[in-house]
């Protein structure tokens, strides 16, 4: 959603804030702004519609000078993207705030503040918070107390950073339901929605907990919890290289992240598997005891992470022989459920901050699940902190809004988890060894697929002038087809749908004609012959087929069938490998269409509001 960044330093903070915004732009990019408290102790503010580059251009000849500042990149929730709705919001000309989240009771507060004489210039929920802090400031006389009194009246989710020109030696920040991290410097300190924003200035971070409020000064960080008790939050060093937020030689983050997959899949396996076995202790000291008791798995996630969960269901039921249910978090959280005894609640999330997934987890903890396991990519995220057991994917920061390496490392983690669970449910050593050996081959197989990039780019030309695409898969490759369709629609804006190939004749076949490309993934498994029949059904209706097939599956190019030959893969690991050509296909279609690949319209990387 939105991204916030703030700094207090001996040096001018404009450069730090702009670089932070650039790195946070994946979170929201319909407008950006910053406010800096200058030496004369006034607040200067700049806001622009569009990307951070527009803000940079706007302040180029007229820099905002000062040692204390806050900045924001927006993903609109209340009020259209416009300069007046862009953050920072101010009350009067001395107080400025930035906000990520949603204030649910903003209408009633707005009425109250209007009655008190405050004038509103925007349609946002955030401006209400600015005025309420100012009102409390007038009564209480200091910023910290004013912020504290204000948040006691807010309902909803927020991460806030507040500055006041009368108190130029600190900023006050707080969080409830939206992420906020404090970057620890030497004689300077920072805050941001995400560590990535601050990597050029520090690699030491404190993660604020829900309900925390912090007073950030150049040389001191004081944190109080929800009850007002002073608390220490431990400092962690950032684990990935500081340049992980750069595109390097690649044209887009998405392409870079697709190409990183062999390395990050390997990194996700490291320390968790030997040549032939899963090391279940690597899943946590309690893992062995827990897995012994699990009789059912309930998976919850959103978007791409949900697709990873759908693949895992095939694995858990086939390899571990246990029942597994998968549901999108936004549905799960709003219905009544029957919980089977000894059910493990498994959340999958790249960011660990997805509002629906977190809400589902919090409900589950009250509802009597055996334990909560998280598969997540962001250390220190809310999901990681609130789960009993965690498997960290080792994808490194994923900047492209369209998830790629996070998905394949989620699958890798889920397969390792499945094998550990299966061991407690009668999986033979021989079978475990066969699957682990197959997993070791995956990074090399993904590399082989990446070498087909040029050919896939050629295929992508066939989609440029199309408005719709159908994706087909069978078995555990059906979720891969779903993920392929999601990628295509997210970044190329072509309408895409996925079906289990066997469903084709039950309806979607009516759509097939020469204007409807049909993309299929066809590893050489038990279902390949059935899949070939489905392909014939398409060809018989004049449909154009794009088939990513095992080179031993006997699918060759002819007439309206474009076959791309992939290396042979084990049927269990096929979903990981077959995801990659679909990522490349979407990427090239988007580039050919000239869309904004890394920051597609209307989307945000981390969906921290409902
Ligand atoms: O951070 P999460 O994995 O919880 O995010 C879930 C979805 O919002 C995310 O996967 C979304 O669907 C991506 N844009 C997919 O590319």
Labels describing this entry:
610 residues, alpha/beta, Glutamine Phosphoribosylpyrophosphate, subunit 1, domain 1, Rossmann fold, 7-stranded antiparallel β-sheet, 18 helices, 35% helix, binds 5-amino-5-deoxy-1-O-phosphono-D-mannitol
What does the model show?
- With 610 residues, this protein is α/β, with parallel strands linked by helices.
- 35% of the residues lie in helices and 23% in strands.
- The chain contains 18 helices and 25 strands.
- The strands form four sheets. The protein has an eight-stranded antiparallel beta sheet with strand order 3-2-4-1-10-9-11-15, covered by helices on one side.
- Helix 17 links the parallel strand 23 and strand 24 (544-550).
- Helix 3 packs across helix 4, helix 4 packs across helix 5 and helix 7 packs parallel to helix 13 (405-423).
- The model has no long low-confidence stretch (mean pLDDT 92).
- 5-amino-5-deoxy-1-O-phosphono-D-mannitol binds next to helix 9.
Mean pLDDT equals 92
Helicity level: 25-40%
CATH architectural label of the largest domain: 4-Layer Sandwich
| Termini Cα gap | 10 Å
Give a brief outline of the structure.
Its main location: cytoplasm. By secondary structure, this protein is an alpha/beta fold.
Explain the layout of strands and helices:
Blueprint: E1 3-8, H1 14-24, E2 31-37, E3 43-49, H2 52-59, E4 68-74, E5 89-91, E6 95-103, H3 106-115, H4 126-140, H5 143-151, E7 156-164, E8 171-176, E9 181-184, E10 189-192, E11 204-207, E12 213-216, E13 221-224, E14 230-231, E15 235-237, H6 253-259, H7 261-269, H8 287-293, E16 296-301, H9 303-320, E17 324-328, H10 329-332, E18 343-349, H11 355-367, E19 371-376, H12 382-386, E20 389-392, H13 405-423, H14 429-450, H15 453-460, E21 468-473, H16 478-492, E22 495-500, E23 517-522, H17 528-539, E24 544-550, E25 561-566, H18 574-593
Helix pairs in contact: 3-4, 4-5, 7-13, 7-14, 9-13, 9-16, 13-14, 14-18, 15-18, 16-18
This protein binds 5-amino-5-deoxy-1-O-phosphono-D-mannitol (M6R).
